Amino acid sequence: MSIASASLTPLTSAWASNGASAVQRLPILVYHRFADTVSDSMTVRTSLFKAHLRLIERLNCHVIPLQDWVDFRCGKGNAIPERSVVLTADDGHRSQFEVMAPILAPYGWKMTLFIYPSAISNAKYAMTWAHVHEMTRSRQYALGSHTYWHPNLIRERGNMGLDDYRRFVTKQLTRSKDELQQRCGQPVSLLAWPFGLCDDDLMALAADCGYQAAFALGNRTATVNDALHAEPRYLMVDDFSEQRLEALLTSIFHVKAPA
Ligand SMILES: [Zn+2]
Asked: How far apart are CA 165 and CA 136, in angstroms?
């Protein structure tokens, strides 16, 4: 794909000093479903998704694997490039295989799929394991856990005693991680909270279950100051027009879009 590069005008560095550590603002985008028309709140029109990708290319952003950001945060990786963006998709909806993947393929950009295994090859709306295998075989996609059956973990806490609740959460986190790793043969160390809901207790349980990092929602950029197990993501819905995304990214990166 061609890259419209040199016409961007940096106004300031995306890095800001914060004592000893540099702070970078990283937009992490999360998509769910794709279709020609919008039939529910989580669907993004195919035409809009295409426009988002063209915009990211036009702004000369670096689409980096989510793991690069986590490695950087854990002190195991290099600093990430300025103007980095991360793409993620939750829930394993069938349209991610049928609609999204063919559109994203020519760009070669990496994306992390957060999946809850109980739906795969089971729910009508979801991908099959064959779909998941095909996507992860290409190495364009990494897998993350979205718990085992996508419960509302905050609401469930009111339904049982504390010990039972912690056992329930631990099972949701470990069963998903184990099944994804066994079926797809790649390590799974990242988690997305169902509905973006978490609290300090859940974050501690995620760390205990071997998750390096976890992701919520929040419509703001992730920074090194965020809790590693509750990093925010921008929810991409059909209201997130090309113009809105352009305004957001140019503001985050302090650049002017090419005319
Ligand atoms: Zn979800």
From this structure: 32
**Phi/psi at 67 (5° precision):** -60, -30
102 C-alpha to center of ligand 1: Å?
Answer: 22
Helix locations, the chain, DSSP H: 46-58, 66-73, 94-95, 101-104, 129-137, 153-156, 162-184, 200-208, 242-253
Return d(Cα 24, Cα 26) in angstroms, integer: 6
pTM for this model (two decimals): 0.90
One-letter amino acid identity for 215? F
Report every protein residue that has its C-beta within 5 angstroms of ion ligand 1: 90-91
Domains of the chain: 24-247 (3.20.20.370)
**How large is the C-alpha radius of gyration of the chain?**
18
Q: How far is the centre of ligand 1, averaged over its atoms, from the C-alpha of 90 (Å)? A: 5
166 Cα–ligand 1 center, Å: 20
CA 21 – ligand 1 centroid, Å: 33
pLDDT (tens, 9 = 90+) of the chain, 259 residues, equals 333 333 343 333 333 333 334 557 899 999 999 999 998 999 999 999 999 999 999 999 999 999 999 999 999 988 899 999 999 999 999 999 999 999 999 999 999 999 999 999 999 999 999 999 999 998 899 999 999 999 999 999 989 999 999 999 999 999 999 999 999 999 999 999 999 999 999 999 999 999 999 999 999 999 999 999 999 999 999 999 999 999 999 999 988 776 6
Distance (Å, rounded) from C-alpha 210 to C-alpha 192? 14
Centre of ligand 1 to C-alpha 144, Å, is 12
Which residue, 126, 125, 123, is CA-closest to 135? Answer: 126
